[in-house]
Amino acid sequence: MTRDKASTLDAELQKVFGKPVPGLYEEAVGQDASPALARALELRSFLALAEEQVARVRDRVHADMDPDRDMGELSADKLRFDAQWLAAALDARDGYRTALGELLRTMPPPAQQARPVLTAQPRITAPRPPTAAPPQRAGVARARRP
Tens of pLDDT along 84-95? Predict the structure, then answer.
């Protein structure tokens, strides 16, 4: 599970939200959890998974290129496939890092996050000016002047 796997932005999450990542996951299931926390943890989970994929492909390529390995086992097709897989995993990781980093940068400080949101709608208090002509009723034609 990605909750248990570390990500490269865990320290940043802790700095912004003021709790270690496991505590943030516990807070996120509560009724008062902020939407920003839920979004940040979702992005963090995706990031942890993408970073795990990058590490798997890297380790597989390292094992395939081990100097003690039989040269007859090398496959250019397999290495090309691993290179494509690695490129896709790196793109995903970079995208999630960027999205999560942007979310954390644009969030208000924790002290401001607790403030209630004002939802009152502005009202117009001035009376409307009188109209010059009475309103026309639908379906009634004006009389033509000669």
Answer: 999 999 999 999
Q: How far apart are CA 124 and CA 76, in angstroms?
A: 72
What b/e string do you get for 67-94 counting C-beta neighbours within 10 Å, with b at 16 or more? eeeeeeeeeeeeeeebeebbeebbebbe
Are 7 and 51 in contact by the 8 Å Cβ rule? The answer is yes
The phi, psi pair for 66, rounded to 5°, reads -55, 130
- Whether 12 and 104 have beta carbons less than 8 Å apart is answered as yes
Check residue 10 and report its DSSP letter. H
For 121, which DSSP code? P
pLDDT one-digit tens code per residue, 30-65: 888 888 899 999 999 999 999 999 999 999 999 999
